C-alpha cells in the first residue's frame, strides 16, 4: 500500500517551482527512473525529483523536510546496498546535473553531481589530464568521491578526495554553502570520506593531473590452480614497485567473448591487472616481469588509450544484475591470506562472481591520516568480494560464497572502505572510520544535520 506522506497540493507546488522533472508512480517513465544499478534492489518511491540545477535540489530538500519524507539521494545509483532509492519516500535524483568545465591552464575541473566517471574522463582526457576516480565508467562521481574514491591512478595521485579543491552543497535546512580548506573547513574535512551524511553536494572542483592519452595497462591471467605461486610472485613483485604502478588482483570465470579463446570460456582464472600512470615505455619496463611470469593463458596488458582501459571492467558490472559485496582491508598478503584467496577462487560458481583485490599505498598513504575523514590509508590491500548473479536464481549461493570468503579472512581484517559496505550496522560504519574519526563525524553531523534527515547512506547518527 502506498504510504507517501505528501498531499497533492504539496506535490503540485513542487512541480510548479521545479526546473527538472517530478515523476510519480503514474508517470510513464517511473519504472525506468526508480531502478538502480543493483538489480536485487526493488524499491518504489512515492516521488522522484530529477533535479536540473542546484535550485531544484534546494526545493526538493525543503519539500522532503516539510513533508517529513524518507529521502534518498542518487547520483549514479551505484550504491551496493541500494541506498540511493527508497520505498514510499522521496528520491532526489541528481543525474540530469551533468555539467563539466575544464580550466586547462590552471589544471582544474568543475563537475556537477550527476556526472558519471566515464563522462568526466572523456572531457578531461581531451587535455591529457585526469582526476583519480574509480574503475567502472558508469559509476557516479558524487558517491565515489564522498566515500574517498579509489581507482587506477591513486598510487600516483592519491584518492579522488585528495584532488578535491571545494564543493558546493545543500544542507538539511535547504541552505547552500561552500566547503573548502578556507571556507567551512570542518565540513570540507567531513565530506572527504564521510559520505552524504552532511548534505547534498551539487558541484565539485578538482585538481587535474597529467595522464595519457596512451597508457600501459591491462590484465594478465593464469589458471586458478596456479593462484598460490602467482600471488606469491605478485607479493614480492609489488614490494618495490613505483607509485606510477597500480594493480588489482582478480578472481573470476573467463567470459565468453571474442577476445577469449573458446576453450577458456568459463574457466576459473586469476588475473593481475595493472595500469602505469606514466610514459608507455616506462610502463612496459615496469610490467614486463608480470607479463613473463609463468605461462599466462591470456594477456591483455598492452599500450592503449586510458579511456579504453577505464572501460575494461564495465562489462563485468552491467546495470541490472544482482550484486552483493563483502569487504575488508588487510595489512599484507601473508601465506595464509594467499591460501584463502586461492581456495575461494576454486569455488567460484557464477560467471559474474568475482574478487577485486586492490593494491593501496603510494600517494594514498602519504596523506596524513587526520587530514580527511577517510580511514585506512595505511592498509596494504582492500578486498572487494562480489557474490553476483544475473537474476535471483543462484543469488543466495553467491552471497554465501562472499560471506564465507570474508569470514575466512576475518583474523586478518584491519579497516574497511566505506563505499564497499552493504547495510551492515553501526559497528561496521564505526570500523570504516575508526573510533576517533567516528566521534568527530558524529559531532559534525549534529552541527549540520541534527535531525538525521540525510540518513539513507552509511549513516553517522548525530552524536
Automatic annotation (TrEMBL):
<dbReference type="InterPro" id="IPR012951">
    <property type="entry name" value="BBE"/>
</dbReference>
<dbReference type="InterPro" id="IPR016166">
    <property type="entry name" value="FAD-bd_PCMH"/>
</dbReference>
<protein>
    <submittedName>
        <fullName>FAD-binding oxidoreductase</fullName>
    </submittedName>
</protein>
<keyword id="KW-0274">FAD</keyword>
<dbReference type="InterPro" id="IPR050416">
    <property type="entry name" value="FAD-linked_Oxidoreductase"/>
</dbReference>
<dbReference type="Pfam" id="PF08031">
    <property type="entry name" value="BBE"/>
</dbReference>
<feature type="domain" description="FAD-binding PCMH-type">
    <location>
        <begin position="41"/>
        <end position="211"/>
    </location>
</feature>
<keyword id="KW-0560">Oxidoreductase</keyword>
<dbReference type="InterPro" id="IPR016167">
    <property type="entry name" value="FAD-bd_PCMH_sub1"/>
</dbReference>
<dbReference type="InterPro" id="IPR016169">
    <property type="entry name" value="FAD-bd_PCMH_sub2"/>
</dbReference>
<dbReference type="InterPro" id="IPR006094">
    <property type="entry name" value="Oxid_FAD_bind_N"/>
</dbReference>
<dbReference type="GO" id="GO:0016491">
    <property type="term" value="F:oxidoreductase activity"/>
</dbReference>
<dbReference type="GO" id="GO:0071949">
    <property type="term" value="F:FAD binding"/>
</dbReference>
<comment type="similarity">
    <text>Belongs to the oxygen-dependent FAD-linked oxidoreductase family.</text>
</comment>
<dbReference type="Pfam" id="PF01565">
    <property type="entry name" value="FAD_binding_4"/>
</dbReference>
<keyword id="KW-0285">Flavoprotein</keyword>
<dbReference type="InterPro" id="IPR036318">
    <property type="entry name" value="FAD-bd_PCMH-like_sf"/>
</dbReference>
Amino acid at each position: 500500500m502506498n504510504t507517501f506522506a505528501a498531499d497533492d497540493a504539496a506535490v503540485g507546488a513542487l512541480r510548479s517551482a521545479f526546473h527538472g522533472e517530478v515523476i510519480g508512480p503514474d508517470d510513464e517513465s517511473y519504472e525506468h527512473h526508480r531502478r538502480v544499478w543493483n538489480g536485487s534492489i526493488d524499491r518504489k518511491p512515492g516521488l522522484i525529483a530529477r533535479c536540473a540545477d542546484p535550485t531544484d535540489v534546494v526545493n526538493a530538500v525543503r519539500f522532503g523536510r516539510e513533508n517529513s519524507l524518507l529521502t534518498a539521494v542518487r547520483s549514479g545509483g551505484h550504491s551496493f546496498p541500494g541506498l540511493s532509492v527508497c520505498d514510499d519516500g522521496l528520491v532526489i535524483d541528481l543525474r540530469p546535473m551533468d555539467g563539466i568545465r575544464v580550466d586547462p591552464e590552471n589544471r582544474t575541473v568543475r563537475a556537477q553531481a550527476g556526472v558519471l566517471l566515464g563522462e568526466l574522463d572523456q572531457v578531461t582526457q581531451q587535455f591529457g589530464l585526469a582526476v583519480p576516480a574509480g574503475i567502472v565508467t558508469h559509476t557516479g562521481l558524487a558517491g565515489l568521491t564522498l566515500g574517498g574514491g579509489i581507482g587506477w591512478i591513486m598510487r600516483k595521485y592519491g584518492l579522488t578526495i585528495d584532488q578535491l579543491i571545494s564543493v558546493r552543497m545543500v544542507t538539511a535546512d535547504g541552505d547552500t554553502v561552500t566547503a573548502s580548506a578556507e571556507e567551512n573547513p570542518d565540513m570540507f574535512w567531513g565530506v572527504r570520506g564521510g559520505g552524504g551524511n552532511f548534505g547534498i553536494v551539487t558541484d565539485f572542483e578538482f585538481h587535474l593531473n597529467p595522464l595519457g592519452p596512451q597508457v600501459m595497462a591491462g590484465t594478465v591471467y593464469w589458471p586458478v590452480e596456479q593462484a598460490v605461486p602467482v600471488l606469491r610472485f605478485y607479493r614480492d613483485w609489488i614490494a618495490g614497485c613505483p607509485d606510477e604502478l597500480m594493480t588489482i588482483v582478480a578472481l573470476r570465470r573467463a567470459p565468453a567473448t571474442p577476445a577469449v579463446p573458446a576453450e577458456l570460456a568459463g574457466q576459473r582464472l586469476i588475473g593481475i591487472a595493472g595500469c602505469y600512470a606514466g610514459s608507455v615505455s616506462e610502463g612496459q619496463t615496469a610490467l614486463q616481469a608480470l607479463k613473463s611470469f609463468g605461462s599466462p593463458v591470456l594477456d591483455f596488458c598492452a599500450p592503449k588509450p586510458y579511456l579504453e582501459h577505464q572501460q575494461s571492467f564495465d562489462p563485468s558490472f552491467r546495470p541490472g544484475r544482482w550484486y552483493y559485496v563483502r569487504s575488508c582491508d588487510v595489512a599484507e598478503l601473508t601465506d595464509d591470506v594467499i591460501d584463502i584467496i586461492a581456495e575461494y577462487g576454486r569455488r567460484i560458481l557464477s560467471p559474474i562472481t568475482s574478487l577485486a583485490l586492490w593494491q593501496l599505498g603510494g600517494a594514498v598513504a602519504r596523506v596524513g591520516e587526520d587530514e580527511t575523514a577517510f580511514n585506512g590509508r595505511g592498509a596494504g590491500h582492500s578486498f572487494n568480494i562480489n557474490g553476483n548473479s544475473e537474476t535471483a536464481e543462484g543469488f543466495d549461493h553467491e552471497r554465501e560464497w562472499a560471506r564465507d570468503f570474508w569470514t575466512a579472512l576475518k583474523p586478518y581484517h584491519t579497516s574497511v572502505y566505506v563505499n564497499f559496505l552493504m547495510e551492515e550496522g553501526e559497528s561496521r560504519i564505526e570500523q570504516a572510520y575508526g573510533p576517533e574519526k567516528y566521534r568527530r563525524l558524529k559531532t559534525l553531523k549534529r552541527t549540520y544535520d541534527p535531525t538525521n534527515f540525510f540518513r539513507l547512506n552509511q549513516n553517522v547518527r548525530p552524536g
